[in-house]
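Re: the multi-chain job from yesterday

Posting the exact lines I submitted so nobody has to dig through the queue logs.
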Amino acid sequence: MPINYYIFLAVALFSIGVMGVLTRRNAIIVFMCIELMLNAVNLLLVAFSKMHHATALAGDAATMVGAEAQLFVFFIMVVAAAEVSVGLAIIVMMYRNIHSVDINFLNRLKH
Amino acid sequence: MSITEILFWFLTALALLSALMVVFSKNPVHSVLWLIAVFFAISGHYIILNAQFLAIVNLIVYAGAIMVLFLFVIMLMNLNAETEPQKNRWLWWAGTIAGGSLMLVIIAALKNTENQMAQIKGGDIGLIQNLGKVLFNDYVLPFEISSVLFLSAMVGAVVIGKKD
Amino acid sequence: MTKLTYLIPLFPLIGFLVNGLGRRVLPKSFSGAFGSLTVLASFILSVLIFMEVRVDGFTAQQIRLFSFINTASLNIPFAFQIDQLSSLFLLIITGVGFLIHVYSTAYMSNEGSDHYARYFAYLNLFVFSMLLLVLGANYVIMFIGWEGVGLCSYLLIGYWFKNGDYNNAAKKAFVMNRIGDLGFLLAVFWMIGQFGTTNFSDIFPRANDTAPAVLTGITLLLFVGATGKSAQIPLYTWLPDAMAGPTPVSALIHAATMVTAGIYMIARSNILYTLAPVTPSIVAVIGLATSILAATIAIQQNDIKKVLAYSTVSQLGLMFLGLGVGAYTGAVFHVMTHAFFKALLFLGAGSVIHAMHHEQDIRNMGGLKKHLPVTHLTFLIGCIAIAGIPPFSGFFSKDEILMGAFAHSPVLYFIGTFSALLTAFYMFRLYAMTFLGTFRGTHEQEHHLHESPAAITIPLVILALLAVVAGFLGIPEVFAKDAHWLQHFLAPVFADSTARQEAHAISHNTEYAMMGGTVLAILVIMFYALKKFGAYTKTGEEASGFAKLLANKWYVDEIYEAVISRPLRGLSVFFNNVIERSAIDGIVNGTGKFIQYSSRQLRWLQSGQVGSYILIMVVATVVFFIIQIFGK
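And the result, structure tokens for all chains:
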């Protein structure tokens, strides 16, 4: 499969995530859109790992080039899981304090 | 058009459609479900790319654990569609246009790159055996440290979420 | 003894610091006595130095204190020069200065103690600056003193600073002086450019090899400085207004010392002036014109101090005439005698004003002879001296200048003589209206008329004695051979110039005839003035015709107002209204308004809403992408 397809797909997913972050005001949806963006990047990383692997295979049949990228994705997932647990805890606390998850109420930065 | 390609286009369409539905759904629960669909589609892509380990981990961690967490929170708060009246149309359009132009710019920037092929079938670096070797040979320290990260995230989540 | 020269200006400086800093705590008796004593100490030192200098064969000494400006190409030391000329001026300044300090202790006794101390602080600062001026061994040190006396003059004219007119007079003096000082400063720069130094001892020997055009430029610029400080046309108008200051100040600064700074400076630079082709003639003509102009104005003035002020301007003009015709000794001689009798006249006028309770209009005086006997007598001596009646001092010094003028050109002589005759007329008019006749003031004033205290009369008597005898320092050669002590004394200073001047021998008979004619004319005018104004009664009618022109001082102030001030003011108004308001304020206010406006617009960016921040971030990212990728 041409790498461009994967690139375009990842960019499209990422942009949809950005759009969601910009347009939605529900903090949970915003959070989910961020996860979507993370996944778009993950997909791109895997695609590139396979691309490099294919290139390296031509020289060395036993090469392991590309495995690092997939491990990188693995670590991203680890970090994302930790991030989600903390982020959701924050959202819960926010809901407890202002009884809403609307980020437009989070305008304390102005003051 | 081979079966792989058909599968590729199908999964791509599914991912994009589901992603859009995540953004445009009124009900947060629907968004979560659509997002799970996106993750499935991406996992499918991983399988096509012969990254089986990541495909499974993606399903387990994202679609399984994380999204369940989301669902829990949404249900705990009893959110529904009416809680988010979208008043500012201007901001909505601005966000859409900004996101769209971001996509257009990046695509325009990358469309003329040298076109290489990503290996789809074959290639066994994505297998658990191989990844495990690399992980526990070269990346064992980050792997162990990530457990500390989890521990601290867990403590943090508990401290933040504690009712006081 | 010359090693201690630095003490001479140091004493008044200490007096200034003590009185100036302690003016709120010092009692009046202390500040007055301390101020006077510091000057007395300087006077004693000056006398000691004079004793050393008067020995034959004394050569000029430079005393280098420290390096003032020290760069690779320019080295200006803070140095003093002791020679015959500076030593003579030291005596005049500290001697007359001391007498006036003593006089001031009584004259200013009505002032509050802090103002009293302030007065003495200014006076001491003035003496310090004046000493710096005459002691400086280069033009830069001289310039420091030059500016210092200008500052003190300003401070003392505006001493009664609650009176707006006095403040305006002070400002006028300062501004007029600044115009002159600019000329001086440019001359100093030119000298630095031409000679690379400002030391007298370095410049004067090299003057001979310098292009005449350069010398003319430098000397003319220096003369501009002199016209400011010494009140010559066109910058003289500040001096009559400077009479706003206390009378002792007028005596010290505006008669005896500061206004002679210009003469000192030109006498000091005599070799430059002798070598410059055109300048001496200009100096002579301007001096003569000033002399005549001021003398004519003095005839119609009714303020006792204004008459003396115009008389001072007139006498200064005569001194410049002397400088212009190369009679340097005569000019310095006249400076000295003038310091005595004009200080005497001013102090006498101060005594009269003191007795009359600050009445200065001579039309309201008259008959003061019997009330103020000491003042009357000393004032009369001063009048005779300034009028030039032998054997009083003014005769000798004025005669020497006029003889020098005659040697140069008879026309100059006759005009100068005419000025001298006018001097006699207005001085005896002043004397007659003040002391003769019957008292024309109010009864209350008459009741309070009294002779001034000893602190005022003693300086008067001393100065009167000096005014009588000082002339014998310079007996002309017609009367006795080699009796001109001053010429002998100052010869080393003017040696180079004298060597370059052609000797004009005037036959003794001519000289006798001219002297006799002049003295006779002066006596006639004196008696005419005494007779005419001795029985002056107030008529109340305004002066008319030519007299009105004179009473209004030839309308010089008005001409300056019309020619210089008004266009300048118009220009200022234009700048204020158009450039300042529209352009500069427009830019400044426009900047402010623009920032206010743009801030108000930009404020919407800081909504505090996370969403808008992210939006901006994304937009910025897009822009950066575009620039990065497509901008090449």
